[in-house]
Design a protein that fits this description.
Bound molecules: O-methyl-L-tyrosine, zinc ion
Shape: globular
Helix content: 40-55%
CATH superfamily of the domain at 1-194: tricorn interacting facor f3 domain
Distance between the termini: 22 Å
Largest sheet: 8 strands, mixed
Strand content: 15-25%
Length: 892
């Protein structure tokens, strides 16, 4: 990393490999200090490209020998390449021996140790830190892997595929040999060796095949794997039912590891998970954790087809597998949610996350398209754009060709490309070809701009009602702001799902001018496709002036300006049949008020109309508690900041705090009612009904404690403390604890101390303890001071990514008011931590560096102080590529 020069890799420069590696036999003698790797590969020239030397990737390796067809050959090492100039024309065998040092590998890429066991992480370019190889996704080989290790310390030896041999060796060692029949790119290779135990489940799938599912964890964690196993079984069933994609392996293994850079990894047949994305019990995990685990287990499982059976030609195509797989896991979660209302809650949560993370990314220094054009460090491109916006792009295909049409397109994609490494264009073509004449196929080239243009399109919608003609003309205009390196944008294809509501809330028919009676006459929802910079649509037979409900279900990842005022938003909030737009109306009502206060610099005073509307939502006899909790929650500060050209994070925070306080006091009796009437009495289950009630109870409690603390009343804080102590599940316990901490109630400190004492053996719970304090609502600099103090806590370490994230990222990413300080101390802290982390784990450091993406939008004095901090990081001579790319882009 450091000794190599940072080169810019461009998508346009792609060339196919000069050699293919068809098979590889790997032999590992596992030792934490020095592991010996012997690799024997069968290579073949790629006849389609001109000859050249063989160049293998290798990093942080100690090379012992190189043989071709059993004879030693001369080679060169240049930077991170091993170059062999003279290789036979025909197929040949290449043998390489090298060592690596797993216990020194704090970057957690390649082969490393964690808690005394061995794990690998090879995506994107970690395999080259294990042995020399053509470490690129378009080189796919059949792997046979032999693992040798001390039997007492490493009784479990796992790799991809099927176990074909085990044996006991001398000196207390043993051996396991694995064979994976599916050719795969090196990034999907995995091995695990350690003292682990497994939960096992045998299943018979629809096709009548038997499979063994295993979840491996450390002794003592077994009872926390039930939910993951259930999620895995549900994922297998769902993929077979929805997309006819069966499990293609006899044995499917999942392993948990507590040191991991990301959530999880889809290695073929051997998924490796961050324990935070795998382990759950009611006592240690919240409803949100259960939900997240279900979706990540599903995500990794779904990669078995979208990513593994069909993989990416190069890393620019990352969204081919990630956008598609996120879309699949989102669809799965919605289907698991079962009721329409619970489905809507899933969608709202996904869109909230997109707006809080991807919209700022699309507007900042790191803005890039879903299929980027260039990168220095690919690890920096596992982004919200590639994942979440990528998923929205896939969702638009489905919107344009329909659910069945999309399923047909997926079938054609696998028919054409199973076993291949392909591009986003190949995917687009398959969906279009399976749906000739569809709204997609007729605009495919324009649609593909979603892959090439960065930035979030602005969609402006204005309606004009002609009472005499009974027509409603809807004019849609789109523009996409310039982003780094892309000044001019072309119109995109934007599916706009919509309905029209009468003022009394009734849904109106949607017939367009020129349509004969049938189409649209009775429909109350339809999809318009905007593919020009500006287009008008004329609806006929509209009996009264309608309120348009646009972009239903968030049908495209755009910023909508519909010009609706309070009166119209209230109609939507009360009557829209689309739950997403009902929620959206609640957020817009709050957003308008908060932005008004921030822009004018006036203190925020919530009006009676707004408060009454919120009371009506809270007291509504039919709305789902989960929906109520979302509608009554104020917009994220990050999302609010995105609406402003110049951001003063303290002003945003002050307005949100004021809104929160007023909502808490004006609705005090209603919160108390909600708290009392939504208690869950049944045994714990993370299902949507129970978790929805808990969400509303926790929000109510937070409001009640906030209000009481402000007015010096001790009753609700006392109740919260009692609830915290008596809680029988982590959701209730954390809810009560965060209510106390966020209100800075007097009881907060003793609750925190008690929590720590109670859970000191549970790393994932201690992470929560740090995170809660890092995210605590800021007042008088107390949260920031506490975080600095906690950095010295004996449980804190930068070496474990979960722990580092729990405290530092909580502050810097999720607590703008505590982080953006007029005295610049937040930025100084950020720079110090980026540099400290970079020496340990560049990927994690790179993530933290991203916090400053939007610094140019900051008001003074934040802006200058932020620039100074970024410049200080950039000036460090031996930065990793990861951090250097981020800070250089920020300063460009
Ligand atoms: N492909 C995984 C995410 C992942 C990416 C990179 C990693 O290490 C650098 C680890 C995991 C997924 O989408 O789940
Ligand atoms: Zn993924």
């Amino acid at each position: 990393m450091r000794e190599g020069t940072a080169t810019l890799i461009r998508r346009a420069d792609y060339v196919a490999p000069i050699f293919w590696i068809r098979t590889v036999d790997l032999c590992f003698d596992l030792d934490p200090a020095k592991t010996l790797v012997a690799s024997k590969m069968r290579l073949e020239r790629n006849a389609a490209v001109p000859h050249g030397p063989l160049r293998l990737h290798g990093e942080e390796l100690n090379l012992l020998r190189v043989l071709i067809d059993g004879e030693s050959v001369s080679f060169r090492q240049e930077g991170h390449e091993l170059i062999i100039d003279n290789v036979p024309d025909a197929d040949f065998t290449l043998e390489i021996r090298n060592t690596c040092a797993p216990e020194k590998n704090t970057a957690l890429s390649g082969l490393y140790t964690s808690g005394g066991s061995f794990f690998t992480q090879c995506e994107a370019e970690g395999f080259r830190r294990i042995t020399y190889f053509l470490d690129r996704p378009d080189v796919m080989a059949v792997y046979t892997v032999t693992l040798r290790a001390d039997k007492a310390r490493y009784p479990v030896l796992l790799s991809n595929g099927n176990l074909v041999e085990t044996a006991t060796l001398d000196n207390g060692r043993h051996l396991a040999k694995w064979h994976d029949p599916f050719p795969k790119p090196s990034y999907l290779f995995a091995l695990v060796a350690g003292d682990l135990v497994a939960r096992e489940q045998r299943i018979r799938t629809r096709g009548g095949k038997d499979h063994l599912l295993q979840v491996y964890v450390r002794q003592g964690d077994l009872e926390k794997t039930e939910h993951a196993m259930n999620s895995l079984i549900a994922s297998v069933v769902w993929d077979e039912a929805r997309f006819k994609l069966p499990l293609d392996l006899e044995r499917f293994m999942v392993v948990g590891v507590s040191d991991f850079n990301m959530g999880a990894m889809e290695n073929k047949g051997l998924n490796i998970f961050n324990t935070s994305a795998l382990l759950a019990s009611p006592a240690t995990a919240t409803d949100a954790d259960f939900h997240r685990i279900e979706s990540i287990v599903a995500h990794e499982y779904f990669h078995n087809w979208t990513g593994n059976r069909v993989t990416c030609r190069d890393w620019f195509q990352l969204s081919l597998k990630e956008g598609l797989t996120v879309f699949r896991d989102q669809e799965f979660s919605q289907d698991m949610a079962a009721t329409p209302s619970a489905r809507a809650v899933c969608r709202i949560e996904d869109v909230r996350a997109l707006r809080a993370r991807q919209f700022p990314e699309d507007a900042g220094a790191m803005a890039h398209s879903v299929r980027p054009d260039e990168y220095v460090e690919i690890n920096n491109f596992y982004t919200a754009t590639v994942y979440e916006k990528g998923s929205e792009v896939v969702r638009m295909y489905q919107t344009l060709v329909g659910r069945d049409g999309f399923a047909k397109g997926m079938a054609l994609y696998f028919e054409r490309h199973d076993g291949q490494a392909v591009t986003c264009d190949d995917f687009a073509q398959a969906i279009a070809d399976a749906n000739p004449g569809s709204a997609l196929s007729t605009r495919l080239d324009a649609f593909k701009r979603w892959y090439s243009q960065a930035g979030t399109p602005r969609l402006r919608a204005r309606g004009a009602y002609d009472a005499a003609a009974q027509t409603f003309t809807l004019t849609l205009k789109q523009t996409t702001p310039a982003t780094p390196g892309q000044d001019r944008k072309l119109p995109q294809v934007i599916p706009v799902a919509l309905g029209l509501l009468a003022r009394d809330g009734q849904a109106l028919p949607l017939m367009l001018q020129g349509e004969d009676g049938a189409a649209g006459a009775t429909e109350t929802e339809r999809v318009l496709v905007l593919d020009q910079a500006e287009q008008s649509f004329v609806f006929v037979n509209v009996p009264s002036e309608p309120v348009p409900s646009l972009l239903r279900g968030f049908s495209a990842p755009v910023v909508l300006d519909d010009g609706l005022g309070d009166a119209e938003l209230l109609v939507l909030l009360t009557h829209d049949s689309d739950a997403f737009n009902r929620w959206e109306a609640s957020q817009r009502l709050a957003l308008n008020r908060i932005l008004g206060a921030v822009r004018t610099g006036q203190p925020l005073v919530l009006d009676a109309a707004y408060l009454e509307a919120m009371r009506a939502v809270l007291r509504h006899p039919e709305l789902d508690p989960a929906f109520k909790a979302l509608a009554l929650q104020l917009p994220d500060e990050a999302y609010i900041a995105e609406q402003l050209d110049v951001v003063d994070p303290q002003a945003v925070h002050a307005a949100v705090e004021a809104a929160q306080t007023q909502l808490a006091s004006a609705l005090q009796a209603d919160w108390a009612w909600a708290y009392d009437t939504h208690q869950v009495t049944a045994g714990y289950s993370p299902d949507p009904v129970q978790s929805g009630k808990r969400a509303l109870v926790n929000l109510s409690l937070a409001m009640l404690v906030l209000n009481a603390t402000r007015s010096g009343d001790g009753v609700w804080p006392g109740r919260a403390y009692q609830r915290f102590k008596d809680a029988t599940n982590m959701t209730d316990r954390m809810g009560a604890l965060s209510a106390l901490v966020n209100a800075q109630a007097e009881l907060a400190d003793s609750a925190l101390a008690r929590f720590h004492a109670q859970f000191k053996g549970e790393a994932l719970v201690i992470d929560k303890w740090f995170a809660l304090q890092g995210r605590a609502a800021e007042r008088d600099g107390k949260t920031f001071a506490r975080v600095k103090q906690l950095m010295k806590h004996p449980d804190f370490t930068l070496k474990n990514p979960n722990r580092a994230r729990s405290l530092i990222f909580s502050l810097a990413m999720f607590n703008p008011a505590a982080f953006h300080r007029a005295d610049a101390a937040g930025y100084v802290f950020w720079a110090d931590q980026v540099l400290a982390l970079d020496a340990i784990n560049p990927q994690v450091a790179g993530r933290l560096a991203r916090v400053m993406d939007r610094w140019t939008a900051l008001a003074e004095p934040y802006r200058s102080a932020a620039r100074e901090a970024i410049a200080r990081v950039a000036a460090k001579p031996d930065l990793s590529n990861d951090v250097r790319e981020i800070v250089q882009r920020a300063l460009a």
